[in-house]
Design goal:
The protein is mainly beta. The protein has three domains: 11-30 and 63-264, Cyclophilin-like (Cyclophilin, Beta Barrel), CATH 2.40.100.10; 31-59 and 267-323, Immunoglobulins (Immunoglobulin-like, Sandwich); 327-484, Sandwich (Jelly Rolls). Helices cover 8% and strands 41% of the residues. The chain is built from four helices and 36 strands. The protein has helices at residues 11-21, 85-96, 219-226, 400-405, and strands at residues 33-34, 41-44, 48-52, 57-58, 64-70, 73-79, 101-103, 110-114, 117-119, 123-126, 129-130, 145-146, 165-168, 182-185, 193-194, 197-198, 210-215, 230-231, 240-241, 258-259, 261-265, 268-274, 280-285, 288-293, 297-307, 312-322, 327-337, 343-351, 355-363, 376-382, 387-391, 416-423, 430-438, 444-452, 460-467, 478-484. The strands form ten sheets. An eight-stranded antiparallel β-sheet has the order 9-10-14-13-17-6-5-21. It is globular and about 80 Å long. The chain starts with 10 loop residues before the first helix and ends with a strand.
Length: 485
């Protein structure tokens, strides 16, 4: 079924859609902006501070972005989640769950999405079919597999269908039928007056929801795809672009305009430099800025960001490196789980300031201890016993990159880690509990660690208390701590 647009609409529908079109807007690229400048701050000597640059800068017209790699070149899509939130979330759901790819049962290889429609001087369309092989053909002919779709989403028409915009395809006469298919406008398709009636994409079928656009020089790739010869194979493939294909021969994967990869990327790229590298050095890691304090003194740090169209913004701040007082940096406890279902509990106190940034780790395989737990899990509770954070396998954590940047990522993907900020008080103690278990119920030796990752004056870790199985020999209950400064 060809998900796109009806050739014509009834007069009643046209009147309704024409009224809708008046509200659609043309959105040119808007340069990034500094939304929350990084304030000057103090940092302890020999510490690293991780600054989330996504909190400091914003691309006003791109909440997310993806890189789409085709056999004819790559292109970046900027996605406007503020204007079309449900549509962007839907598209990213297909990307992140791998719905645009599948293992071909015929050859056990990854089969990818392809452009199944290229309407000259109009649109190129994809999102509907994966280039799988025909198991009954020994010449390598394809038998496309439809993309497994999620439920249709409501229409969100707000941005005009101008050249380079990306919009959702849908069924004729059903404006809320969009699922997986999308198209790129090869020209301004907002209006198309035929015999005095506008059937442009801003009015047809309730208006087609634009949710992004092709950034930078990506339209060069779009033009290359639009220039591929097209052939009529009927229904959804009546304008199928094929490369180096001869009439009468099997259509093979190499003839398709395939999309081997679609991956999320940051809408903004960052760079940074300091004016006193003897005092502090800076490194950009993805969307994080790592500031490492090397000696007492001051350094000015400049940060710049560039969007996918080449527009820029910049900010600067001063870091004042100070000597660090003696303080607890890490507390830990280790125990044997002789049967498997037991729990190791580590209680700790924070005091001072208003908050404490910390990492709680549950370690097993990388501990180097014989008979270590092979799959530990961890949860963090506040003083009332409420679970405030959990993790089972640290690489699934939403802030895993910051854990890596802090230099304390667990050594095994089966180990767990929580990076969070908890409340603290200046005058009173605040208690917390870390609780570790075996995720699969198998016995072994496990270790809970709590790291103070604050790099400036404020609250401190105060103590560790332990509740867990007590054995003899190598199975005794062990507590550890690190003091620095």
């Amino acid at each position: 079924m060809n998900r796109f647009c009806a050739p014509s609409l009834s007069a009643v529908a046209l009147l309704a859609c024409a009224h809708l079109a008046q509200g659609l807007t043309v959105k040119p690229n808007v340069a990034p902006a500094v939304t929350s400048p990084v304030a000057d701050y103090q940092q302890y000597f020999q510490t690293t501070r991780v600054i989330n640059l996504r909190s400091a800068f914003k691309d006003p017209d791109a909440s997310a972005a993806v890189k789409v790699t085709t056999v004819l070149g790559a292109m970046n899509f900027t996605l406007d989640g503020e204007t079309a939130p449900r549509t962007v979330a839907n598209f990213l759901n297909y990307v992140n769950t791998g719905r645009y790819f599948k293992i071909d049962p015929t050859n056990s290889q990854v089969a990818s999405l392809f452009f199944h429609r290229a309407a000259p001087n109009f649109v190129i369309q994809s999102g509907g079919f994966i280039g799988t092989l025909d198991p009954d053909n020994d010449e390598g002919a394809i038998k496309p597999t439809p993309v497994a779709t999620f439920s249709p989403i409501p229409n969100e028409p707000a941005i005009s269908n101008t050249r380079g915009t990306i919009a959702m395809a849908k069924l004729a006469n059903n404006q809320n039928s969009a699922t997986s298919q999308w198209f790129i406008n090869l020209k301004d398709n907002a209006r198309n007056v035929v015999s005095g009636t506008d059937i442009g994409l801003d009015v047809q079928n309730g208006g087609f929801t634009v949710f992004g656009r092709v950034a930078g020089n990506g339209m060069t790739t779009v033009a290359a795809i639009g220039g591929v010869p097209i052939y009529n194979f009927g229904t959804s493939f009546d304008q199928l672009p094929l490369r180096d294909w001869n009439t009468g021969t099997p259509v093979k994967v190499r003839n398709l305009v395939s999309i081997p990869q679609i991956v999320p990327i940051s809408p903004l790229q960052f760079s940074a430099a300091g004016n006193n590298t003897a005092v502090a050095t800076v490194v950009v890691s993805g969307t994080n800025l790592l500031v490492t304090a090397l000696q007492v003194g001051s350094a000015q740090i400049g940060v710049s960001t560039t969007d996918l169209d080449g527009a820029t913004a910049s900010d600067s701040f001063t870091v004042n490196v100070i000597a660090a007082p003696g303080r607890v940096r890490n507390i830990s406890t280790r125990a044997n789980f002789p049967n498997g279902p037991e729990t190791l509990t580590g209680g700790f106190i924070v005091r001072g300031g208003t908050s404490k940034r910390l990492v709680v780790r549950a370690i097993g395989p990388s501990s180097g201890v014989p008979g270590a737990l092979d799959d530990p899990t961890v949860e963090l509770l506040n003083g009332t016993g409420q679970v405030i954070a959990t993790n089972n396998n640290w690489m699934d954590a939403p802030n895993k990159q910051e854990i890596v940047d802090l230099g304390i990522a667990p050594g095994s993907p089966n180990e767990s880690a929580i990076l969070t900020t908890v409340p603290s008080q200046e005058a009173n103690i605040t208690t917390y509990t870390a609780r570790m278990k075996s995720a699969n119920g198998r016995p072994g030796v496990g270790l809970i660690e709590i790291y103070d990752v604050d790099s400036a004056p404020g609250s401190t870790l105060r103590n560790i208390s332990t509740l867990g199985p007590v054995g003899t020999g190598v199975n005794v209950l062990v507590g550890g701590f690190i003091v620095r400064g």
